Amino acid sequence: MADAVHPVHGEVHRHPAPTGFIRKYVFSTDHKVIGIQYWCLALFSVFVGMGLSLLMRLQLGWPGQEWGFLKTIFPNAAENGTISGELYLSMLTMHGTIMVFFVLTTAPQGGFGNYFLPIQIGADDMAFPVLNMMSFWITFLALAVLISAFFADSLAPWLGMTAASNVIGPIGGWTGYAPLSALGEKAGPGQGLGVMLWVTSIALFCLASLLGALNFITTMLNMRARGMSLMRLPLTCWAWFTTAVLALLSFPVLLAAGILLLLDHLAGTSFFIPGGEYVSGKLVTEHAGGSPILWQHLFWFFGHPEVYIAILPGMGLTSHILSTFSRKPVFGYRAMVYAIFAIGLLGFFVWGHHMFISGMSPYSAIAFSLITLTIGVPSAIKTFNWLGTLWGGQIRFTTPMLFAIGFVSLFVSGGITGLFLGQTSIDIPLHDTYFVVGHFHLIMGVAAIFGMFAGTYFWFPKMFGKMMNEGMGKLHFFLTFAGVNAIFIPMHIMGMAGQTRRYSFHWNPNTGEGLHYLSNMTPLTRFVSIAAFVTITSQLIFLVNLVWSWAKGRKASENPWEATSLEWTIPSPPPHDNFAGIAPEVYRGPYEYSVPGASKDYVMQNEPGAAEVHGD
Amino acid sequence: MANTLTTDIGIKPGLGAGGGKRGPLGGDPRGPGSDDSKDWPPGWTSEDAAEPQKYRIGMWVALASILMLFISLTSAYIVRGVPALGGGLEDWVPIDMPSVLWVNTAMLLASSVSMELARRALKRNEYARFRTWITLTTLLGIAFLAGQLMAWRQLAAQGVFINSHPHSSFFYLLTSLHGLHLLGGVIALTYVTLAAMRMRIGFKRRTAVNVTALYWHFMDGLWIYLFGLLFFFR
What residues 113-132 of chain A have any CB closer than 8 A to a CB of chain B? Predict the structure, then answer.
């Protein structure tokens, strides 16, 4: 084996193992600790976000109902135990922002990517460990600022501002459309200090993501082990790399939009505020000439790549796991890599499909529509290749495998409605209805979350040295898979019935208030709410499984899944510098399962020898 | 059999006396940090050179994201400035260019030239020259920032502020964002200059010089672009 290793060059003491608690677990520069920190931040955020959706579903299913406990939680905003319209919108904004930024963007990339990209390419750490640490702590700060935005109403008096009557944060949704987001307090409660804190949080998050992306790209380009040619990289690495490129090029645009929005608030500029608006009974005279559509362009130029930032790591992981548990090479490895590139590239040219009803020229709309539908091609390539990977495999139905298959299922059922919405003629009536809510929750919300679950069940043994409980894992999978379909499939029907999104209630059967044409949607709405409660409750199984496995789980071996990539060649959990100072050498591609003539049904990437098959 | 991390560097052939091109300033004995394999000390592989390489890649990547920031602000500028695109009012009143901007532009261009002269002097191991040019670059950079503040004062004296009209909003926004980025460059230059003063220009700091030079030229080009955008495309 002597020729299988060669010494790590560069600085020997770049990374001495820290000894104190603070340097080891808090301000650590070790990519593995930072990965776990990101993952914990996402876990905390996802439970906050789910808690908010629980309250929103309570309101939507039983509007006007008085809940005693709401009075306790929100003494101002829900004084009679019902969720006011503003409180609902505020929760909706927080739910969206927390989920998109602090869950979908952090866990798959900052969490798993940070932990496993260096190990999978055979490096001892990220290229810039200190930047990596800064990136996490800026994200942490951004989360703290965002949560404080939720309590803007309570904070305002301390800062010498008037507290709005009964609202607790920004109410513009995660998209924060101008001009209402730019006008300040006069556009509604929570739109002053709340929006300023919200946009500050997003600006900080942009900064953190840029530092992270810089690190990912440099690491992958520059720190691969000897023999790790580009076409021998696990597909997870390609997905993280492409995600980092998307983040690098799209977050600056959001940052620019955020700066302009903040200036409209603080410096009296008029980037987004047109003149002569009549808002909340007052005429806006101090601003003129701005363009609210400009905000939409800048926001969605970021917003659409952001969708792929959320989903691409899940795609990479799904390919990786499907191959591992089918005991077969990934079907069409190169096609998979090029499809990731194609999705990433096309993602920059389709932002207009979020704005079909903004009054854009029909000719632009056709162009955006065509490019949008083109994304169906690489997506179909990926789906086809996933099925090709499964086809004829000796499938092992472990929990990570179930979640990866679930990912494929949700990707298809959520993606297919993207083809509906990508066409202007269908989008115009369905825009701002629950059809859109169902669509993006299935694909970008739940499919991406399934990717994270798959990653957690797959890599938990490596990260913590313990196996997760399979029984609890499978129960968690079946309840969640049934649950999310029960929640989001009916939303498409509601959308076609004309149920508008972002309304705090549609029809109140007790008082006869609301939109009468939606009165027969009440049973379906309640069904969705109940399905949401069951699904949210079943996430506790996951939480229990995490804690139980961490404390009492079976000890994990070096390679419990009989997988081939480099993270499975080192102990579980890995030592401080990953490869104990011995840089691995790579001889083959990452998916060599069932190689004819090989002694086992898998050949590790660092295994030299006669059975050598070139990775490409 | 495996060589371990801790025993590697000390015994690497050719890294002792006479290994790298050691300048009279001492510093890191591991060589010049060049990409060109004929500059490497004997026994070096591409992985030894990977260390400075990562800073260069990192800088190019960072520049790409800075470029995107200014591209998006440019698109905002165009949308806001052309009423047909923004659907807004015809309220676009171009501001009078503060005359000091010509001086600032000349200084920044000169600083780019001196940065390049400094970089080349270092490459030829002409340390005295390097110190002179790098110090001049830093001073020109500081002078540019001071000049930008003067431009702001000139405009403020005319009663033109950030909220006066859209063109002044963009002027203040773009100059301050560019200035902030340039300030980062000045801090990096100051670090390199102080190191040069204390005669500590080794392997790592040569990389710092090269990467700072890249950033500095980019900031120079960015300013020329912004100057043209703000005053010749309005």
Answer: 127-128
User: Which A residues, 558 through 577, put their C-beta within 8 Å of a C-beta on chain B?
Assistant: 577
Contact A193, A156 (CB under 8 A): yes
**B85 domain residue, yes or no:** yes
Establish if A426 belongs to a structural domain: yes
Can you give A486-523 as a three-state secondary structure string? HHHHHHHHHHHCCCECCCCCCEECCCCEECHHHHHHHH
pLDDT band at B195 (very low <50, low <70, confident <90, very high): confident
Nearest residue in chain A measured CA to CA from B6: A12
* CATH classification at residue B76: 1.20.120.80
From the list B69, B85, B89, the residue facing A288 with the nearest CB is B89
* Position A572, amino acid: S
Q: Find where tokens 């060109």 sit.
A: B36
The total domain count for chain B is 1
Residue B19 has pLDDT above 60, yes or no: no
Chain B residue with Cα closest to A216 = B58
- Residue B215 forms part of a structural domain: yes
The answer as to whether A464 is a domain residue is: yes
Q: Which residues of A touch B9 (CB under 8 A)?
A: 9, 12
- A318's CB contacts (< 8 A; 6+ apart) are A386, A404, A407, A408, A451, A454
Task: Flag whether B18 is in a domain.
Answer: no
Residue A38 belongs to a domain with what CATH number? 1.20.210.10
Q: Which domain holds residue A512?
A: 33-273+288-584
> Residue A266's closest chain B neighbor by CA?
B163
Q: Does the ipTM surpass 0.95?
A: no
Domain count, chain A: 1
Nearest chain A CA: its distance from B132 CA (Å): 31
| A76 close to A166: Cβ distance less than 8 angstroms | yes
Residue B21 lies in a domain: no
CA–CA gap between residue B135 and residue B69 (Å, rounded): 30
- Residue in B closest to A213 by C-alpha: B61
Q: Which residues, numbered 217 to 256 in chain A, qualify as contacts with chain B under a Cβ-Cβ cut-off of 8 Å?
A: 217-218, 221-223, 226, 248-253, 255-256
Residue A338 lies in a domain: yes
Mean pLDDT per 10-residue run, chain A (616 residues)?
Answer: 39 60 88 96 97 95 88 77 89 96 96 96 93 97 94 70 66 91 84 91 97 96 92 96 97 97 93 86 84 94 96 97 96 96 96 93 94 96 97 96 98 94 94 96 95 97 96 97 97 96 92 92 96 97 97 95 95 90 89 89 86 49
